[in-house]
Fold:
Amino acid sequence: MNQINLSEATRLIQAGEVIAYPTEAVYGLGCDPFDESAFNRLLDLKQRPLEKGVILIAANVAQIRDLALIFDQAWSDLVLKSWESAYSPTTWVLPATPKVPTWITGGRKTVAIRVTHHPEVKALCEAFGGAIVSTSANLSGQPPIKTTADCIACFPQIPVMQGQLSGLAEPSQIWDAQKQVRLR
Structure:
């Protein structure tokens, strides 16, 4: 079961499993952000410390409106306009609401979120009914994975959702909304 379709990927996330999927530039590992057991498996697979936190990826603003302070802020228009662009995916570090589990934030008061235009990821978030975890599919400290074959070789126990990378050379930029500084 190395490659799976959208409906199987959705079912697996809903069942508390970890999957891999193509994003704008690299393959990602994802799970239900509210399933602590699935999240811990994801961190174990990556050999990633909890303190680093992860990104949440969503199909639209409605999926994350209860997870971060997005509206009525000095920087709200900047964030919302950036998410309208399919050509420049941007992840924003935003003030987290109490609904975001501490394992997602790495213990911070902020959460990193991206609204995606990637067709397969957008469809996955829509089918799942909310945002999912999005962290690069690689062992912590190693280069991000850019092919299905490499993803399967690195994580043979993780099913990979069918699809293609969008062709960006680098992962999304990460910006701090409150400070308006680029972090990556």
